[in-house]
UniProtKB/TrEMBL annotation:
Transmembrane segments: none annotated. InterPro entries: EXOC6/Sec15, EXOC6/Sec15_C, EXOC6/Sec15_C_dom1, EXOC6_Sec15_N, EXOC6PINT-1/Sec15/Tip20_C_dom2. It comes from the Eukaryota. One of its GO terms (cellular component) is exocyst. Pfam families: EXOC6_Sec15_N, Sec15_C. Residues 52-221 form the Exocyst complex component EXOC6/Sec15 N-terminal domain. This is Exocyst complex component. GO terms for biological process: Golgi to plasma membrane transport; intracellular protein transport; vesicle tethering involved in exocytosis. PANTHER family: EXOCYST COMPLEX COMPONENT 6, SEC15.
Length: 798
């Protein structure tokens, strides 16, 4: 069945389907219509659908016509009203246009302001964008400025770190900007300039530290000196280093000394006042750049050259202590700095490298000190040099450097110091001996006496009982020599200080030096004094007395040495001083010289002797020269009062023997060809005076008759001729109880021949001499014959 409204012949299902599609088209949007059209197009009945659609359109047209017919009057009314509205609309339009024009006129400023606002907003957007870009670039620029500032302030290591951060962190963020490309291209140049600037600072540092190394060494020595409590006299004003620390702080940027640290503080190390930042900075920079080996090689090479300069002496060191100080200061300054670099860096200076450098320098330093000190002849200067060497070694040890060769040098200095002291004391002793008057000291007051006893240990109970003025047994050179020996010991003790010797070693050293002084220097001076020809006999006697008191006084030097060295008990050197032997030998030589001088003086008088050996009769008194000799001997032996009794006795005995032998030589002189009995009798008067002198006991202590025995031979000889007792002599010859036991047949023959020759000469002058004379001549010939027989038969006596 079909719907009458739609085309005939269509099935009902199709009709319903087409109605649904049309309803959908009417109610749906364009998207659904397209889908419906596509569905109809895809089907086979679109023609029928078009027919159905056309029928539906016609139906709607009929509905519209019916509706228009129903509403036509209303429509006409509406058109009339619309026409009325048209007029109103035109007026409204005019009003709107007028209002619009008015609005346009009033809105023009607003539009302009809006345009301005638009431009401002655009500018603002640009500014904001610019700020964003600048904020992105600003860290790069700030870091670059910071880099330049760090380089200007010579903070090169920090600048290098900043440069790395700029290169690897900041620049990649803004690499699209052109200025960043320029920065990136400039980075290698900046890195190179940092290296060059840091190296330049290092060179300036090395040059400055070389100039100021002596100040560093001086301060280091002073610091060690304060710690070890050595004598403050080691340091004196006017040292070779800079006068004040302030002189080290200058406007020079290369100065390694930091002004902030320059204060008067004894506890501050001199290295605390040195700015080592150029070294650290350069080391870090080269390490960061991977060139540490290059830097280490350069640093060690430059410091090696400076070490050679440091160990070179300036001028003749032995002329002035300042040269030694400066030499020690510059060496210490160099190696103290190197030790500091060793302890504050890793690998720049190694212990092995520093030990090699020091050992190389050590041998040269020791050789330099040994060569220069060898020319020193001033004990005071050498003592000051020793103090400086000791302080130098202490400072080296405090920094861990080996100083053994220099310590061994001190032993050489000790020997040289002793030699200089010996030469000095030769002059001192010689001057004392030259200026002494060789007369016993006379003290007027107790104060003078106490001053002498304080100088030299001397006491005499007998002397203290005597009133003032008192006459001491010795002359002035005794206390002076003793005092100078003590001064020598003090000088030796000064040198032994600060050598780290034990009390026993110091005591042994001083005793050995003192023994050398006594055995060589003083002994030599005493020998020279004793052998001095200008020294008189009385002075020689006084010298002998002086040696006795010096020997007694020098026994106390043992205790004196022990006191100043602090040695006690078993630690005292067993050898002791050799003063006893020295003064005993000197005294023995002086005694021998006294004997020689005494005999020489006797010879001087004997040279005045003038005998007439042809006298017929004696003059009846002794010769004048004999009396002079006896007076001289008496006066001399009175001066022997302070000599030991044995010495005075020996001198007296020696003089008498010498006189006796000289007189005997007169008789036996070969130049005397003639001798008369009168001359023998006159000679006997001289011998009598000698015997009287011997009997007077000029020196006490002789055994009875001991001194007289010196003239017995002469007396027996003269008595034999004057008594003409030849029968007794010949009969008792070689008998112990013989009256003429000391008469030698040879001597008798010599004198008898001279007497015979004298008789012959007289007989030639007086041919007719008496019978007694002829008998006497025969007797002489017979005695001579018998005497010659005695000589030929056995050894002579006497």
């Amino acid at each position: 069945m079909t719907d009458p409204k739609y085309p005939i012949g269509q099935p009902l299902e199709k009709v319903e389907e087409h109605n649904r599609l049309v309803s959908v088209i009417e109610e749906s949007d364009s998207t659904s219509v397209c889908q419906i059209f596509r569905a109809i197009q895809d089907g086979n009945d679109h023609e029928r659908f078009m027919q159905h659609l056309k029928a539906r359109i016609q139906e709607h047209d009929r509905d519209i016509e019916r509706m228009c017919n129903f509403h036509y009057q209303g429509f006409v009314d509406s058109i009339g009203q619309l026409l009325k509205v048209r007029a109103i609309a035109e007026r409204l339009k005019e009003e709107v246009l007028s209002t619009n024009r008015s609005l346009q006129r009033s809105g023009l400023p607003v539009i302009q302001q809006a345009e301005d606002l638009e431009r401002t907003r655009k500018t603002h957007r640009n500014i904001v964008a610019t700020v964003e870009h600048l904020q992105l670039c600003l860290p790069v620029l700030q870091m670059y400025c910071k880099l330049n500032e760090q380089m200007e302030n010579k903070r090169y290591y920090t600048a290098l770190k900043t440069l790395e951060q700029l290169e690897h962190t900041q620049l990649p963020r803004v690499k699209r900007y052109r200025f960043c490309e320029n920065m990136a291209k400039n980075i290698p140049k900046l890195r190179e300039s940092i290296m060059e600037a840091s190296m330049s600072d290092l060179k300036d540092f090395l040059e400055s530290i070389r100039k100021h190394s002596d100040w560093i060494g001086e301060e280091a020595m002073k610091q060690v000196q304060r710690r070890s409590n050595m004598e403050s006299s080691v340091f004196v004003k006017g040292s070779s280093g800079p006068n004040k620390e302030s002189s080290l702080v200058e406007a020079d940027s290369t100065n390694p000394f930091s002004e902030d640290f320059i204060e008067e503080d004894e506890e501050i190390s001199p290295l605390d006042k040195v700015d080592f930042s150029p070294v650290y900075r350069c080391l870090h920079i080269y390490s960061v750049l991977g060139m540490r080996d290059t830097f280490e090689s350069y640093y060690r090479k430059q410091r090696g050259k400076q070490s050679k300069l440091a160990i070179q002496p300036h001028g003749n060191m032995y002329e002035n202590l300042k040269h030694y100080k400066k030499y020690f200061y510059q060496i210490l300054g160099f190696f103290v700095v190197e030790d500091h670099i060793l302890n504050t860096t890793e690998g720049l200076v190694t212990r092995q490298y520093l030990d090699v450098l020091w050992n190389t320098a050590l041998s040269k330093i020791a050789a330099t000190l040994r060569n220069n000190s060898a020319y020193c002849t001033d004990a005071t200067l050498l003592l000051q040099i020793k103090d400086q060497v000791v302080l130098f070694t202490h400072t080296l040890n405090s920094y861990g450097f080996n100083s053994t060769p220099i310590v061994e040098l001190l032993l050489d200095l000790k020997d040289q110091y002793n030699e200089i002291l010996m030469n000095t004391w030769v002059q001192v002793f010689s001057e004392i001996f030259d200026n002494d008057n060789y007369t016993a000291i006379i003290v007027e007051t107790e104060q003078e006496y106490n001053e002498i006893t304080r100088t030299i240990p001397f006491s005499s109970t007998e002397l203290e009982k005597l009133p003032y003025p008192k006459r001491l047994p010795f002359s002035e050179f005794v206390p002076k020599v003793y005092q100078q020996i003590k001064e020598f010991i003090y000088a030796c003790h000064k040198f032994s200080q600060d050598l780290h010797l034990t009390q026993t070693e110091r005591d042994d050293m001083i005793r050995k030096s003192t023994n050398i002084l006594l055995m060589r220097t003083l002994s030599g001076c005493l020998t020279a004094l004793i052998r001095k020809h200008s020294l008189g006999l009385i002075e020689l006697v006084q010298v002998t007395v002086n040696t006795i008191h010096l020997e007694n006084a020098c026994k106390y030097l043992e205790d004196f040495i022990s006191n100043i060295t602090g040695t006690t008990g078993d630690n005292i050197h067993a050898a002791g001083l050799q003063s006893t032997n020295i003064f005993r030998d000197a005294r023995s030589e002086a005694e021998q010289e006294i004997y020689k001088r005494l005999n020489a003086k006797v010879d001087d008088f004997l040279e005045l002797a003038s005998y007439d050996w042809t006298l017929d009769e004696p003059r009846g008194h002794a010769s004048g020269y004999i009396m002079d000799i006896i007076r001289f001997l008496e006066g001399s032996f009175k001066a022997f009062v302070h000599l030991p009794g044995k010495v005075a006795q020996t001198a007296c005995l020696s003089a008498c023997k010498h006189l006796s032998q000289a007189l005997m030589d007169f008789l036996l002189d070969n130049n005397i060809r003639l001798m008369t009995m009168g001359a023998i009798q006159q000679f006997s008067f001289d011998i009598i005076q000698c015997e009287l002198f011997a009997n007077s006991e000029p020196v006490p202590g002789f055994r009875e008759g001991a001194l007289q025995m010196t003239f017995v031979q002469l007396r027996q000889l003269l008595d034999l001729f004057m008594v003409w007792d030849w029968s007794t002599y010949l009969a008792d010859y070689n008998q112990p109880t013989s009256k003429y036991s000391r008469v030698n047949p040879h001597t008798a023959i010599t004198i008898l021949e001279k007497m015979r020759d004298s008789e012959k000469k007289k007989s030639n002058l007086f041919t007719n001499f008496k019978k007694n004379d002829r008998d006497r001549k025969k007797l002489m010939d017979m005695v001579l014959k018998q005497l010659r027989a005695l000589v030929s038969s056995g050894p002579p006596r006497g």
